[in-house]
Amino acid sequence: MKKIGLRFWLILCSVLPALLVALLLGSYFNSKQQQDSEQHLRERAANIALSLAISSQQLLQQQESAAIQSLLEQAHRLNSPLVISISLFNAEGELLLTSNSQHNLSNEAFHQQTKKPNQLSYLNQQQHLLVYQPLLKTHPLREAAPGYLLLQFEQQQLLLQQQISLLHSGLLIAVVLILALCLALFLIQKLQPELHRIKRQMQQLMDGQYRVRSYPLSIREMDLLQAGVLQLAERLARLEQEMQQNIEQVTSDLQQSMEQLEIQNIQLDFAKRKALEDNRQKSDFLAKMSHELRTPLNAVIGFTRQLLKTPLSHHQSDYLHTIQKSANSLLNLVNDVLDFSRLEEGRMSINPEPFSLRDTLNDATELLAANAFDKQLELVLVFEPECPDDVIADPARINQVLMNIAGNAIKFTEHGSIVIKVDAIPLNEEQLVLHISVKDTGRGISEEKQGRLFDGIAPIEQNDQQTGSGLGLLISKRLVQAMQGNIGFESKPGEGSTFWFTIKCQRHQLSVAEPLPLELLEHKTVLYFEPQQYSREATLQLLTSWGLQVTVCATKGQLQQALNQNPHYDIGLVGRAVAINQVNDIILLVQRLKTYCEYVYLLVNTLSPNLREALLSSGASACLPKPAHMRKLAMSIAFPYTQPNELRTEATNTLLYPLKVLTVDDNEANLKLINTLLREQVQSLDSARDGAEAWQKTTQHVYDIIFMDINMPVLDGITACQRIRQSSLNEQTPIIAVTAHAMDGERARLISLGFSEFLTKPLDEKMLHYTLHEFCQIQKNSQNQQGTATEATPLIDWDLALQRAAGKPELAQEMLLLLIKSLPQSDKQIRQAITDNDQQVLLHALHKLHGACCYTGVPRLKNLLEALETQLKKGASIKLLEPELYELDDVIQMLLEADTNMPEPLIQASSITVAQA
User: 525-529 and 549-553: which strand pairing?
Assistant: First the structure.
């Protein structure tokens, strides 16, 4: 960008203000003079016209036309050349007399189009001024409208005066600009020498000449600038002197450093010899530490084995087995440290032994399941049917490699699945090559990192939060090579990775594992429901290999079709991803399958004992984590056929839990219902009607758990949750998100924003009960709960309303009345949003009404609102949803006219049920 010089700025700052002031003053005075000239002309014209009107009126009454003509000509001559013509017209606009016959104005277009005046008026043309003066009436009542005078005046002289005035103004402006320019040039002439001297001094500094001459300057600012330049010169001179001294000192130090470097080379040679000795001592130390660490671990493992011999419940036994496996894993880790030391020395310990391949890998996968469950990943272990089970190899080393590779796959995968596939390639009758692969749906590995993956370093950038040292893969590679195998991978960025390794093994003719009770399962019919593809295929293959007759279902529609075709099955097996808000759905599914299957088993992706106990209380025979351990699954489904089935009875706990709970909801009906349900379970309960009030309460009281609605006025639930997490007394308190509708991915989004869990409306006692048990440290008291199938009526379902109100008729009636009372206001908001074509307002109104109807038995309204809300969230336009909106209006009107009284038999039946409870 080209910079502007000081000369230009001085001229601009001098001339521009003068020009603006001159223009403003010239314009003002010219305008004022022009107005005064025009006003003077009009006043003079008015005086002439009025005097002629008075004189002409008297002569007209006497009908003295000659006298009037003489009067008009005399007035014309007296005021010439200002007056061009004077004409007299009657009331109809006909010309009577004129002072200038050559200017007959009666035929002019402007005269014919102009309305005849009743008072003095002016008509301004380009070069003339026309004045209309009506004649005066002598008798207002008897005399008709008189005529009028039309005077035409010349304006050329006026225009000439205005042009002369403009010329004078222009000359004045020019004079002012010349004076301002002269002043600017004078200032430039004054500043130029002094600026040149300052520039010369700066050039001397740039050339390294620090003895700068001082000049006398007449401007104070320039004098101060020169003083600064002189001070800068003195400082630069001192710095140059100090730098020269430093250079001499550094040169001297460099010479000394060269001498010391020779000494250090000799010392490094001695240090290298010492490092080799230290490495040997480190190996000895690691061997001793390995022994010392094994001692307490052996005690943990030994006492765990002893405890397993005592009478234990199913869950206690499962927990102890997990402790035992974790201790063994830690023991293996200690051994790995020793192995790495031996790896550096070039020695590796491989101990082949007979083992059960399936049991070993199932145990390893069971340890990996916890991390996979935390990230909601599908973990699957698949054995090819021809793969043998009894082999001779080092099971600890195989597990070590698998745990490392699968652990990395879980670490670097955010969503999707981890599939572990085991296959065997026979070499001869005694030898085979075991091929194990781990396929994930993670982010993949870039090409620049793939070549360094097994180098034992961290090849991933520092900004990558999920990294490791790379030592595990290096050890895995060395272990696989020591077992006469290979290791490798295939990966593309964004498409996941597949790591694989091969192990050379020998067949073992005798069976090492304990036999499974498969003869009890032969020809048993199994109804298997599993939405996840890989888990479904792996478990189906396992069940089929056991001789079971399996009917597999991937969707609820296929499940219903299977039940319709065959109403009886020996075993029902359900695989589901489970969360707290899905517990009720799974319980209802189990209770439904209980009517078709003798025994129902669950495979879930959780290790939470609370959720598993809740699912077992629904009537499931067993609840196992996914992927199902082959041995545990076989033993569980065969157990009822080994001994009579024992019925479990659990006492219902009627005591209130010692908890302090906060509920937050802006809808009065929703808040009342959740408070009613919680009062039967907890001792202390607080409520808030918006996020701001909830945050205020959390800064004053400590709560055990908080139930937070999402869409609220003043402060929404997400912002309130984040404020509570940042600054309150409840930063660690579980906060449960509660909303009437949730699309796919909503749970993950809310949990990432700070919520502990996510629940969908409608809530009920069981869902709240499971939530309290999962997130609060209280004594678990299970209740036998039976789901009742309800058949929805077209408009109002009283059975469903009672179920939502925990069997309380009064509460169900009140909830329905509150909903119907709010319908007119909601309908008005929905209509206004449709009229304004405002999708956000419409979505908010539908969501609020949806949340209110979730607690009442109005399934038709609820389903319609849910469909509309889903379509709006997906971006559908209001015009596209017009049929559904018309149907919504019809349903609202039907509800307003419907009978809201609960049937008497239903009230009596509910009362009997409550009394029996």
Answer: parallel
SS3 label, residue 309: coil
Distance between CA atoms of residues 705 and 719, nearest Å: 17
DSSP state of 622: E
The pLDDT assigned to 300 comes to 72
User: What is the distance between the alpha carbons of residues 899 and 105, in angstroms, rounded to a whole number?
Assistant: 89
- Residue 686: predicted pLDDT: 92
What DSSP element (H or E) covers 873? Answer: helix 859-873
* SS3 of residue 866 by DSSP: helix
Q: pLDDT digits over 673-727, tens only?
A: 788 888 888 888 999 999 999 999 998 888 999 999 988 888 999 999 999 998 8
Q: List pLDDT tens digits, range 300-347.
A: 776 676 677 677 776 787 788 788 777 777 776 676 666 666 666 666
Contacts for 199 with CB less than 8 Å, ≥ 6 apart:
none
Mean pLDDT of 863-880: 78
Provide long-range contacts, Cβ within 8 A and 24+ apart, for 142-147: 144/91, 145/91, 145/118, 146/57, 146/60, 146/91, 147/60, 147/88, 147/89, 147/90, 147/91, 147/96
HEC string of 798-854? HHHHHHHCCCCHHHHHHHHHHHHHHHHHHHHHHHHHHHHCCHHHHHHHHHHHHHHHC
Q: Residue 689 corresponds to which amino acid?
A: R
Give the CA distances from residue 105 to residues 88, 109, 128, 150, in Å, rounded to whole numbers and listed in that order. 10, 9, 12, 8
Model pTM above 0.85: no
Q: Which tokens hold the place of 865? A: 């609102």
